[in-house]
Task: structure prediction
Amino acid sequence: MSKLSDRLAKPIVLVGLMGAGKSTVGRRLAKRLGLSFVDTDTAIADAAGYSAAEIFERYGEADFRDGERRLVARLIDGQVRVIATGGGVFVDPRTRKLLNEEAITIWLDAPVDVLADRTARRDTRPLLRNGDPKGTLERLAQERGAAYAEAHIRVTSGGGAHGQVVESIVEALEEYLNGRGGQPPTDIPERPLA
Ligand code: S3P
Result:
C-alpha cells in the first residue's frame, strides 16, 4: 500500500482543549508523515507581533477569536499539512464547518486531570489565569465537548508518551482513509440463518 502521506488529499487539523498536546503531537505527527506543520497560536502571534496571551490582554477575546477565524480560513488553502489549532478554533460553527469540509479533523481528547497537570506547567493561557484552572477546564470540557465530538476522528491521549499518541493517530488515519472512519466495517456479511 502507498505511503499514508501520499494518500492524504486534505490537511490534518488537530482540535481539542488546552493541554491535550495538539502542538507537540502535531509537530511530531508532521515529522512522521513528512509534512509541514503550523500552529494557529504561533501563526497569530507571528502575524500580530504579540503572543496569543498578549492579544487577549490588549484587545480582548473577541478580537483574538476574529483573528483566529480569519487565520484558519487562510491556512485552509489546499496544502496538505498538519495544523494544530488553539482550543477555541473548532468551537466557532463556521470554522468547524469549513474544517470538516476541507480537512481531516482529529479531536485529541484527554481527561481533565491530565489537561490540568499539563497546563499548570506554563502560565501562557489567559483563560486559565482565574485562580481555578481545573474548574475552568471542567467547564470548557462540558461546554465544548459536543463541538469537538463533531471531528472526523477522536483519539484519546492519557498522561502517556506523545509518541504513542502519534502512532494512535496514524492508525486512526489509516482506518479513516480505508473508509471506515473509526466505525466498525460495514461489509461484514450477515450471519446466515441457522
Ligand atoms: C484557547 C486555547 C489556547 C489559545 C488561547 C485560547 C481556548 O490554545 O488559543 O489561549 O480558548 O481554548 P491551546 O489550546 O493551544 O492552549
